[in-house]
Design a protein that fits this description.
- It is a single chain.
- This protein is mostly helical.
- It contains four helices and no strands.
- The longest helix has 26 residues, at 52-77.
């Protein structure tokens, strides 16, 4: 998932893709998204989609993970 925009709704496939890209279990992703594991499973299978607040949490999760990857990559470069 290369482009996560605040004004784009999440489809079930994009939630599943993002979670897998971040290498998170449903349980971990659910805690971070302030949702239940069952809710995340429902999103991923097309039974509903994240509400605006849930989508905002997902965007924050994605951005945080991207920022951490950049920091780790910089540390790997070394002196």
């Amino acid at each position: 998932m290369k482009n996560v925009a605040e004004d784009e709704p999440f489809s079930g496939g994009s939630v599943a893709e993002l979670r897998k890209e971040l290498q998170m279990s449903r349980a971990t992703f659910a805690r971070l998204a302030n949702a239940t594991e069952r809710t995340v499973a429902n999103w991923e299978t097309g039974i509903g989609e994240p509400r605006p607040m849930g989508a905002a949490h997902i965007i924050q999760i994605y951005r945080l993970c991207q920022a951490l990857r950049v920091l780790v990559a910089r540390e790997d470069i070394g002196p």
